[in-house]
Automatic annotation (TrEMBL):
Keywords: Hydrolase. InterPro entries: RutC, RutC-like_sf, YjgF/YER057c/UK114. GO terms for molecular function: deaminase activity. It comes from Pseudomonas eucalypticola. This is 3-aminoacrylate deaminase RutC. Involved in pyrimidine catabolism. Catalyzes the deamination of 3-aminoacrylate to malonic semialdehyde, a reaction that can also occur spontaneously. RutC may facilitate the reaction and modulate the metabolic fitness, rather than catalyzing essential functions. Its EC number is 3.5.-.-. HAMAP family: RutC.
Length: 129
């Protein structure tokens, strides 16, 4: 098995020992993605929809850097801080996955920074290589 780190241009230094994505045998694993700017500050504090859009744009960048598109995403793991944000998160999520939806799960939990309202990790099949 070959494994390749996927790091989009302009990516900041992670707050822990990981890379944004890891591609192995055509399967891309996208690390848990929080609504961070390149300096690891939370963006759009208090706005779950804007944070979701930021997270999905970041994931899109990782997938595209690996040679795929969001259509290649087969599974999303969604972690949210408060169920009160569920509808706002789903509204934005539906914009990004308008066609055939990937499988997913969604749980409520504490996140690494208190102002972060959402985190998403993804799996995509972007071909063999």
């Amino acid at each position: 098995m070959s494994k390749k780190a996927i790091i989009p241009a302009g990516t900041g230094t992670p707050i822990a020992p990981f890379v944004p994505g890891s591609l192995a045998d055509g399967i891309l694993y996208v690390s848990g993605t929080l609504p961070f700017d390149r300096d690891n500050n939370v963006v759009h504090v208090g706005d779950a929809a804007a944070q979701t859009r930021h997270v999905l744009e970041t994931i899109k960048g990782v997938v595209e850097t690996a040679g795929g598109s969001l259509d290649d995403v087969t599974f999303n793991m969604i972690m949210l801080r408060d169920w009160a944000d569920y509808a706002a998160i789903n509204a934005v999520y539906a914009e990004y996955f308008a066609g055939e939806k990937p499988a997913r799960y969604c749980i409520q939990c504490g996140l690494v920074k208190p102002d972060a309202l959402i985190e998403i990790a993804s799996i995509a099949h972007v071909g063999r290589g």
